[in-house]
Design brief:
The chain has 386 residues and is an all-alpha fold. The protein has 15 helices and 4 strands. It has a two-stranded antiparallel sheet.
Length: 386
């Protein structure tokens, strides 16, 4: 655990320290987000924050190669984790820089995402098995494993890209998802007396660190945006951890009371990314029905609707954090207890309370503002005779 904590700390510290320099470079380079009708920021804001996140990732991997136990993970002959993350991450960052500075069409970005997935596959990061309800693992031949791997990578990248609409939203949501994956992988290995060292856990740890390091600069009011450079990078790392975790644990070897823990990697990312995935599907359906391209921008995403309800930017982001954390903690909790009723009851109670607060707070704020607006001014006091 100490080596993982050091990796997280290095990733966070380097990303945090690099971000101001990247911000100045983005202003000089001309990579700034102009104010558009569908945006929520009111002044031009530099992009390219993903460069600082990539720097944090590189620094964390370099430090990991010098740690005695972590070096074994990176030296694994079957999966070249470090090489895969550096090559695919570098490729996706280059595509992101071009888009943040000059803007590229959707097909070019899609080709870059598929190429990054191809780098993963060439370095051994691929979906090889899927746990079955019978307790056995279904082996996937390349004809099925390769396209499924590409699909997971591209879908995760675009889901993260879709949610990157409010200050701090994407970095926080992905950081929570990565923390849930890290906790799941580490705790399941530790409780079953297996090695806690794996490429999936290391990738999740690096992702937690770079999101935590970048978030202070990106939270409302954001001084820099991660841009497509960052959103595609963290989506890529999230998909890598998910793919490597799927099928990592053998049900027969662990002898667990339920098979649910072995489906968590496949369920966790769709669960914590339920908001961006649903938002993405709704956006595609909405734009297609309007006769527009599925990639055409608009101002009808879920985070825009939260703002319309009366929530502030910060409160809207915290609401999204709350729901993502609730879903993630519920899935991880189900991996370590056989009491479905207990987990469902606690999750349901917290969800109802959160929903009530989410609806009540803007109404209370609006009522308080209206009362303040109509309150009569105090009459002037008469002057006392001298």
């Amino acid at each position: 655990m100490r080596e993982y904590l050091l990796t997280i700390l290095i990733a966070a510290l380097v990303a945090y320290l690099l971000t101001p320099a990247v911000r100045r470079f983005a202003v000089w380079f001309g990579a700034q987000a102009a104010v558009r009708d569908r945006d929520v920021h009111v002044i031009p804001t530099p992009r390219l924050g993903g460069l600082a996140m990539f720097g944090g990732m590189v620094a964390a991997l370099v430090v990991a190669t010098g740690l005695p136990e972590m070096r074994k993970v990176l030296a694994n002959g079957d999966v070249s984790v470090g090489k895969a993350l550096l090559l695919s991450g570098g490729l996706i960052v280059l595509v992101g820089i071009a888009d943040d500075r000059w803007g590229v069409d959707a097909l070019t970005k899609f080709a870059g995402q598929v190429a990054a997935a191809g780098v993963f596959i060439m370095q051994g990061i691929q979906l090889y098995v899927i746990p079955m309800p019978t307790g056995e693992s279904l082996s996937l031949p390349p004809a099925y494993g390769v396209p499924l791997t590409v699909f997971i990578v591209v879908a995760t990248i675009n889901a993260v890209n879709f949610i990157d609409g409010l200050d701090g939203l994407a970095a926080g949501v992905v950081g929570i998802a990565a923390l849930a994956l890290f906790s799941y992988a580490y705790l399941l290995s530790y409780t079953n007396k297996l090695t806690t060292l794996s490429g999936a856990t290391l990738t999740a740890a690096v992702l937690v660190g770079i999101c935590a390091g970048f978030l202070p600069h990106n939270f409302n009011p954001a001084r820099i945006f991660m841009g497509d450079t960052g959103s595609m990078l963290i989506g890529l790392l999230l998909s890598a951890s998910t793919i490597m975790l799927t099928g990592q644990f053998d049900p027969a070897f662990l002898g667990t009371y339920t098979l649910f823990p072995f489906y968590v990697p496949l369920l966790l990312v769709p669960a914590v990314a339920a908001v961006p995935f649903v938002d993405m599907l709704l956006a595609v359906w909405r734009r297609t029905n309007q006769g527009r391209s599925p990639f055409a921008p608009d101002k009808q995403h879920l985070h825009h609707r939260l703002l319309e309800l009366g929530h502030s930017h910060r409160r809207a982001v915290l609401i999204m954090y709350f729901w993502v954390s609730l879903l993630a903690s519920s899935l991880v909790g189900l991996s370590f207890t056989n009491s479905l009723v207990l987990v469902a009851s606690v999750t349901g109670a917290v969800a109802v309370a959160g929903l009530a607060v989410m609806i009540a707070v803007p109404r209370m704020s609006a009522r308080r503002a209206a009362t303040t607006a109509v309150a009569p001014a105090d009459p002037p006091r008469p002057r006392q005779p001298v």
